[in-house]
């Protein structure tokens, strides 16, 4: 076999899932999930193994980039055609709408977190005040013995 002949049925220029996982730092399980959700396309070789084109490395990077913004996989699947040719998205009515909708959702979540933090802060302040009072009452009770 030293003649360099291929021993598998994988088309030239394509990689298997393990190689894609190594190149992207994403587990094979996650890559299969991306495929299941329509975020990544895989071919099959004659042995039935998944194979990917070289551009799958960039596709995985784009999916990871969009996931980091908090977008769900359904939104990302719809946005992937707008995510061609480098970072960011092609600006169109659809992609701008999805991004602005996500920003509005994050603004609402941040406002809710701020409200919860203020409520928790009020509890903490009350607990500190009570603790001082409770400790003073306990000290008086111990002195009166």
Q: What is the topological layout?
A:
Blueprint: E1 15-16, H1 17-24, H2 28-36, E2 43-44, E3 50-52, H3 56-67, H4 73-79, H5 93-143
Antiparallel strand pairs: 1-3, 2-3
Characterization of the model:
By secondary structure, this protein is mostly helical. The protein is 60% helix and 5% strand. The chain has helices spanning 17-24, 28-36, 56-67, 73-79, 93-143, and strands spanning 15-16, 43-44, 50-52. Strands 1-3-2 form a three-stranded antiparallel sheet. A hairpin with a 5-residue loop joins strand 2 and strand 3 (50-52). The radius of gyration is 27 Å and the shape is elongated. It starts with 14 loop residues before the first strand and ends with a helix.
The general outline is elongated
Strand tally: 3
Run of helices and strands: EHHEEHHH
What percentage of amino acids are in beta strands?
Answer: under 5%
Please give the alpha-carbon distance between the first and last residues: 95 Å
pLDDT averaged over residues: 87
Portion in helices: 55-70%
Biggest pleated-sheet summary? 3 strands, antiparallel
Q: What is the tally of helical segments? A: 5
Structural classification:
mainly alpha
Low-pLDDT windows of residues? 1-6
Strand order of the largest sheet: 1-3-2
Radius of gyration: 27 Å
Kindly summarize this structure in a few lines:
This protein is mainly α and 145 residues long.
Which terms would index this structure?
145 residues; mainly alpha; three-stranded antiparallel beta sheet; 5 helices; disordered N terminus
């Amino acid at each position: 076999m030293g003649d360099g002949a291929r021993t598998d049925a994988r088309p030239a220029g394509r990689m298997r899932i393990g190689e894609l996982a190594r190149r992207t730092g994403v587990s094979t399980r996650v890559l299969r999930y991306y495929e299941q959700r329509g975020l990544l396309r895989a071919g099959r070789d004659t042995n039935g193994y998944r194979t990917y084109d070289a551009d799958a490395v960039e596709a995985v990077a784009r999916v990871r980039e969009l996931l980091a913004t908090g977008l769900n996989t359904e939104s990302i699947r719809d946005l992937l055609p707008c995510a061609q040719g480098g970072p960011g998205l092609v600006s169109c009515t659809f992609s701008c709408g999805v991004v602005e909708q996500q920003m509005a959702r994050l603004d609402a979540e941040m406002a809710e977190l701020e409200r919860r933090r203020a409520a928790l802060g009020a509890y903490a302040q009350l607990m500190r005040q009570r603790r001082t009072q409770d400790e003073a009452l306990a000290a008086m009770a111990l002195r009166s013995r």
